[in-house]
């Protein structure tokens, strides 16, 4: 069971699975940035009462699963999504898909993902891969964050498909149901929907933990971390912020560069120059997130660490919040007439 | 970020793959480039691991001092928390907290010990003796 499948590397796993799966049904105009933007992938949230690996729960992107769902919805592509209570039926269904020539997306946990380096194997259950075939006992795997394809034994695949804990995948499989011809007009409309939704999520969401207000309130919190948490824990918290922002999948600068790329590509479908201007704003925001990461690294490496240094760190986030607020306000003023 | 400014430092991920980074070219257009890593995030990950090693060591000491059962050590070793152990074993969280007490742990049935051993991917003997052998 080996099918013609073209592996394309992406920055982020879910964007990559989305673009690669869409290619299997003949939709080849949806690049990684387009999938990310149409899926309204850009976000910020700091959930104060939740801890991840004893550190702050911070995310720079939307909930796992939504990018694929929203992109397919926006393009009117029907989706099949299944979870399983038994491992046997999960594998049986997977084999049936592969036999019928259908590569599928699988949600997996990375703790037991054998090909990942040990340093990256945490109990994170929202990684996405494509299974595109089987040879003997080896399932053929396309992991979008990797340069090339790989494989997993049936036992190894079962273990990651049935990882336990938060966001447990429960064998989840998903794929676009049928071949579709997607018009440029549909893509234009999808871009519009994606941008409008992202505007809502970033500047109109209530409360102070999410969106641009969440960035500002996190900046204010950071200024208090030195006193509140002590130097060591504050360092660990900042390190966690940097990892969420820069680790595999973000494309750099907490997904802000991917979003900037999206706006440039959107311009090709919808030639409104606001998109290009705002794209530059997100490049600037991404650069500032990276400058903030350098400042954070100075603190967690112990090179700097005075209250003034924490203030500089917090101020970065306050400034970023302003830039992103203005950027989304500009996007909200676009007169769409598609 | 400009394409030529993409860092090419060493990092743990580099053992597996280079990663895709988005940046602008000289004409201001977005493009992708592979990166071997960035030292800023490498040190962030190193720091997280130093903290984990420290927690594992603290847990080992607690078990040796008879202040906790070996379950605590393996929770830390396997980067878990009580919630994740609960999901793998099917035990309630408050029950697991009881099992963290050395006196309670010593009375655990073989059946329960097997559940923990499976969750930690070790043998019951290794669980009882706090032995680690990594393949």
Q: How are the secondary structure elements laid out?
A:
The complex is a heterodimer of chains A (338) and B (135).
Chain A: H1 13-24, H2 32-38, E1 42-52, E2 55-61, H3 66-74, E3 79-82, H4 87-99, E4 104-108, E5 127-135, E6 138-142, E7 150-153, H5 154-161, E8 173-176, H6 184-204, H7 211-229, H8 231-246, H9 256-269, H10 273-300, H11 307-332
Antiparallel strand pairs in A: 1-2, 3-8, 4-5, 4-8, 5-6, 6-7
Chain B: E1 19-24, E2 30-35, H1 39-64, H2 70-77, H3 82-89, H4 93-99, H5 102-106, H6 110-120, H7 124-129
Antiparallel strand pairs in B: 1-2
Provide a brief overview of the structure.
The complex is a heterodimer of chains A (about 350) and B (about 140). Chain A contains 11 helices and 8 strands. Chain A is an alpha+beta fold.
Distance between the termini of chain A: 43 Å
Count every helix of chain A, treating DSSP H or I runs of 4 or more residues as helices: 11
Report on the biggest sheet of chain B: 2 strands, antiparallel
Which geometry of chain B do the CA atoms define?
Answer: elongated
Name the CATH superfamily classification of the largest domain in chain A.
Cysteine proteinases
Order of helices and strands of chain A: HHEEHEHEEEEHEHHHHHH
Total domain count of chain B: 2
Query: What oligomeric assembly is this protein in?
Result: heterodimer
The largest β sheet of chain A comes out as: 6 strands, antiparallel
How many strands of chain B? 2
Number of strands of chain A: 8
- Estimated share of beta-strand residues of chain A: 5-15%
Quick one: CATH class of the largest domain in chain A?
A: Alpha Beta
Task: Give the neighbour order of strands across the main sheet of chain B.
Answer: 1-2
Mean pLDDT of chain A: 95
